[in-house]
Amino acid sequence: MNPNTPVIVGIAHVDQRDADPRSAEEPFDLMLRAVLKSAEDAGIPNLLPSSIRVIRGLWPYRNPAAGISEMLEATGAETALSPYGGNFVQSTVSQSALDILSGKHNLIVMTGAECGQTQARAAKQNVDLKWQTFDSEVDLHIGSEVEMRHEAEKAIRLGRPIQVYPIFETAIRHARGLSVQAHIEQVSNLWAGFSAVAATNPNAWIQEAKTAEEIRTPSAVNRPVSYPYPKFMNSNNNVDQGAAIILCSVEKARQLGIDPSRWVYPWCGTDAHDHYFVSNRANLHSSPAIRIAGARCLEMAQLSVSDIDRVDVYSCFPSAVQVAAQELGLDITQPLTVTGGLTWAGGPLNNYVMHAIVRMVELLRTSPGERGLITANGGYLTKHAFGIYSTEPPSRDFQHDEPQAEIDALAKCNVAETYQGDAQTEAYSVMYGPNGLDKGFVACQTSAGARAWGVVTDPDVLTDMVANEYIGQPVKLKAHAASF
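RESULT FIELD:
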């Protein structure tokens, strides 16, 4: 075996629950605790990484890796930070594997954490969280920030994930020819399956299995958020969770005396993105990037999807899971998560996939020889990353590919930014506010095949939109106002 073959040797999940925001640990504390726990998992009492890589979160730190380096007394360790995006954990694993394979590094630590519950409680109690800042510059920025909102989307203030992913959901419903009722039953059954997995995951934030009926039925604890999603179909960001992963070369693992039964190999990885603007996508119910990059990852591993034993499909919203399953050829009636997903296991924003990899490693260690697939998603079903893992070493050196040119060559939908006149409804979402139905966002197609956007505020129309199918209905646009 190539002595520079990358291998995961240490993992950790940490959390804090029911903490008073005045005394709660901050995200850096969770990161440090996770890093130390991952070293314990690997059996490395004196962890001295050559690079420390942190996944960006909702905290004020400019360079948290520097603080971790100081606490570990890892003098000279490279410090790195990713941008925002749920894809960047898997992307960073792939980059780290390449860096180890090339000999640039021989031991890399990845970590990340969020304290969403603490932040929510602090805001409610008017508590000022005096978190550290770590103001030095990082040595390495992994990836870059990209604008993902078209001017036409900005014009109607469409941009929050809870506004956009339900639009994909209604498009999926129509593309599959399902009635409103049949669709919500199918989606709630899918989410009940995720909940059942969370009930068996000791790391999950919510370990009480929910029924499909509980998930789809609005209640005092399951308020409507954005049609067709109640709260139980949204990512659960109010969690305090951290994780860490240690990667090193096989040669370094042997030098450190790490038990080979703890080793899990990353075999290969891919990255790609769909057209950055939702407005430009050919349709709102598919993802060419998932299809092409996912297939490429399997091809490099010399596997078919039927050869995969365990999978974790990124699950911020049900639409993301359904699109990925369709494009990868996965059966939505089979388990598509190892954690329980972002609703039930916990959705610590950009760092969720690190928890998915941690859980995947735990399970692969108990089932030697099995293969696991991780999928990751950032933006509005925009940026995608894939990775395959096993306790068995790969038949060839770690591989990585970005089949972006093939995706960029695909057709783009034209956008009619200031269109006024008749159109046809393509997809929509309806938002709820404190007093009930608030407004609807409508994606429309003009007679020329361009995409235009409109907003509905008529209470009677909104009430009907959450009960009946509006896709395919004629709509009139005037100054971004949509009327039926």
